[in-house]
Each structure stands twice: as C-alpha cells, then as structure tokens.
Amino acid sequence: METNGSSNITVLTNQTEDFDIYCRRFMAGPLVWTVFSTLCGCVGLPASVGLLWVLVQRQRIGLTSDIYMVNLTPMELIYNIFRPLSVLNFSVLHDEVVKEISLFVEGFQLNGRPLLMACICVDCHMAVAHPITYLNMKNSRCRLAVCALVWATTLTLNLFGRERQHLHLAIRGLLRLLIVSVITYCDVAILLALRKPDPAGKTDIHPQKRRALQVIINSLVMTVVSYLPQVLVSIASTLVPLGQQAMWVSDMAVKLGSFLGFGSL
Where does the protein principally reside (predicted)? Predict the structure, then answer.
C-alpha cells in the first residue's frame, strides 16, 4: 500500500512539474507570443482609442449602423490596455492573480470579438442583399438586444470557461465553426451582389463598388486565416487527448489567430 501510495504521489508530482503554463522549457513559443502581443498592443491601443472617439461622435448625430462597432471597440480597448501587464507577468512576474485576470481579459478577444464580427457581416449582408428588409429593421432595439446577448455570452465564457476547460474548448470550437460559416456566407453573398450588373445592364464596376469589393475580399481572407485555424485546433483538442505542451501550443495558436484577425476590420 505504501509503495502504491508513494508511486501515485510521484506520478502526480511529475505531472505537476511537467506542466508549466509559462513554458520555460520551450522558449520559442513564449518569445513569438511576447513579440506579437507587444506589437498588437502598440498598434491596437491608439487605434482603438481613435476609433472609439470617431464612433462616439457618429452616435451623437443619431447613426445606428455603428452599434456593433461601438460594442466591439471597448472590448478591443480593454484587451489592449491590459496587454502590457499581461506580457510583463508572462515574461517576468509569473503572478497567479494577474494570470487569471489576463485569461479573463483575453476572453473579450477570443470570444466576444468573433461574435460581434459575425453580427457586423450579417448587418452588411442585409443592407446589400435585402435593402428593403434592412430599412424596415433599422430600429436600433434589435441590434442592442443582440449586443446584450453577445456581452452575456462573452462574460459567461470568460468567467466559467477555465473551470471546465474541455467543455469550454468544445463550445469555443462550435462557436468558431458557426462564426466562420456565417462570415464566409455573408462575405461571398455581398461579393456576388456587388459584382452584378446595374439595372441598365452595364458590367463596368464603379470605383466605390471596386473599393467595397476589395474590402470584402480582404475581410474574407482574414476571416479564413484568423478563425479557421482556431476551429481546427479547438475541434482537435476535444477529439484527441493532447499533452500539456500540445495544449499550450494549441492555446498559443488560438491567440495568434486572434492577433492576425485584428486587421480584418
């Protein structure tokens, strides 16, 4: 009995020693993560502040089309404000309280941002493909209700996702799959609608349409690059038992995918 007990303690001790969220034995990953985080913080913070200022000014004159962006920008701002402390803790401090706060704040980028991006794409699709229905639904109450639902979902995943990590990964994988499908469908539908000839039968693309097409193509490419890897990683982590190092690498892949997605807006 003593031998079995001591062997169990040894196994648990080895597992605890093997697990290191800061991955000191695999320095290439943390180095890449730190560089990406620093660059995104330096660029993202002033960009988020400037964008929020512009959106607030627009809301003062009664525009309702930017409601989703008004909700998305504070998420980006919160994330970018906390980024320097998160990087410092990851690289130097290794404080558990700061780590938990960092994981909570990162949820705004990992969970809330993709949901609001999907809402923006659906709104644009309705405006281009179904303009009459879009005009009839121009009341902002519906958009505010959707934003409230997104905030509630994001906060729930941020608060309780760490307690049931495997369930959280499964839910996050399904959400990513749904989001990628919605954004891809909306972008392709908008792309096809903008390429249609005008009522006079002219096939020449107006310069404004050409710019809109370029924006849609960029959005579609960035969506596939940013979120498709996250879908594959989340699904794979639920189907195949991953080791601690593989779980850390998969988590870094999800974070890097979100960093790349910053340029899709």
Answer: membrane
